[in-house]
């Protein structure tokens, strides 16, 4: 028999179009004070996340007190299924707060009243409540500032060979980054090659067009972890989009080619993470372009690389040449060129990745690299931060 004092709660943040953007479930809560504290911590965390993003979309944060079990992971990962679950199975939310109003109250009540207690906060969160004149005026000013956002009619555009992915400029934080992280995770696969290129910019569009375009954008991201859901994607024709709409902040194109510089700049420019497998492939691409990194066989950074031993004999030969005939450039580059070709063949035969034909290192290539260094494009890393 279920203990009536044990409570399950589900906390949901809705984007401006009413689509679940974030969800957190807690089970086995033994008292209402514990449930209130969890909700307040979640509410504050959502505010902090939005404040760090540079825009403040009109989000709602709701708390559902569940008499039954919390939904399973498949439902929590799919915004459409989660929305249906809430509509069909959940009671009315015990809290339904505007995150903008909560943010405004933090400024207005800072020196007047403590708002960390949920029961005290509730009386201020009701839009219909009578407030003291100074509090009401301060709240109205803050809300007006948040609502008069200069970015209200802007879109974030991610242009690819498939078409354009469109997101609100003042979207739930990190959705653009989630898509770019998906591309980074699949960079060396046919999935990324099908994207062709990536270019991001902002675009001003009429309000009505924006509402129609973005009303379902939130379904492309998982509420439980923010991941991009490729099966939910909606592509828009780029040419049609550019007609009559103002564009700004257009960046250069990321070509998504399997080269050292293309991958490195895409990751570094966008602050993305690199999976262990992509780090291993990135090292092979470096070898194909420049030869083995120094101390490839001894540096602990490369200790777990699955192809390290394949290069051991060539590395030993190279070390012997450097030690016994340090001025014999021809022998040195001949061995290094074999490293390059071996890396190319491993990428092609073992991983199915065809890279541009390597330019063999040597005196003429060395001159080009020196020129590149002068231009600030010297390769600095063979191993990116995980």
Percentage of β-strand residues: 5-15%
The first-to-last residue Cα distance is: 47 Å
> What average pLDDT do the residues reach?
87
Helix content: 40-55%
Mind telling me the C-alpha Rg? 27 Å
Number of helices: 15
| Class computed from helices, strands and strand pairing | alpha+beta
Report strand order across the widest sheet: 2-1-3-4
Number of strands: 8
Q: Could you state the order of secondary-structure elements as H and E?
A: EEHEHHEHHHEEHHEHHEHHHHH
Largest sheet: 4 strands, antiparallel
Low-confidence stretches: none
* Shape assignment: elongated
Structural write-up:
Strand 5 and strand 6 form a beta hairpin. Strands 2-1-3-4 form a 4-stranded antiparallel sheet, with helices on both faces. 44% of the residues lie in helices and 13% in strands. It starts with 6 loop residues before the first strand and ends in a 12-residue tail after the last helix. The protein is of the alpha+beta class and 386 residues long.
């Amino acid at each position: 028999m279920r203990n009536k004092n044990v409570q399950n709660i589900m906390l949901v943040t809705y984007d401006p179009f009413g689509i679940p953007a974030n969800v957190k479930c807690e089970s086995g809560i033994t008292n209402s004070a514990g449930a209130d504290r969890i909700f307040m911590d979640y509410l504050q965390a959502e505010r902090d996340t939005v404040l760090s993003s540079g825009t403040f979309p009109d989000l709602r944060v709701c708390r559902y007190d569940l008499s039954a079990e919390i939904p399973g992971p498949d439902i929590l990962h799919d915004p459409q299924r989660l929305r249906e679950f809430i509509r069909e199975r959940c009671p009315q939310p015990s809290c339904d707060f505007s995150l903008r109003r909560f943010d405004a109250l933090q400024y207005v009540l800072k020196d007047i009243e403590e708002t960390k207690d949920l029961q005290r906060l509730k009386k201020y969160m009701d839009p219909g409540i009578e407030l003291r004149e100074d509090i009401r005026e301060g709240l109205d000013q803050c809300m007006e500032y948040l609502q008069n956002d200069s970015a209200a009619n802007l879109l974030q555009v991610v242009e690819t060979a498939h078409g354009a992915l469109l997101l609100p400029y003042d979207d739930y934080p990190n959705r653009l980054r989630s898509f770019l992280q998906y591309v980074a995770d699949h960079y060396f696969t046919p999935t990324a090659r099908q994207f062709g290129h990536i270019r991001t910019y902002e675009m001003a569009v009429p309000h009505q067009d924006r509402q129609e375009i973005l009303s379902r954008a939130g379904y492309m991201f998982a509420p439980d972890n923010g991941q991009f859901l490729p099966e939910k994607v909606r592509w828009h024709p780029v040419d049609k989009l550019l007609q009559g709409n103002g564009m700004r902040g257009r960046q250069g194109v990321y070509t998504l080619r399997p080269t050292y510089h293309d991958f490195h700049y895409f990751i570094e420019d966008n602050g993305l993470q690199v999976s262990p497998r992509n780090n291993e492939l990135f090292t092979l691409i470096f070898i194909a372009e420049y030869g083995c990194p120094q101390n490839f066989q001894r540096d602990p950074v490369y200790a777990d690389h699955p192809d390290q031993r394949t290069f051991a004999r060539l590395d030993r030969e190279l070390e012997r040449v450097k030690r016994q005939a340090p001025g014999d450039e021809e022998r040195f580059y001949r061995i290094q060129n074999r490293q390059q070709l071996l890396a190319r063949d491993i990428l092609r035969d073992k991983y199915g990745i065809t890279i541009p034909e390597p330019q063999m290192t040597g005196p003429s290539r060395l001159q080009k690299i020196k020129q590149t260094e002068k231009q600030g494009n010297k390769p600095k890393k063979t191993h990116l931060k995980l």
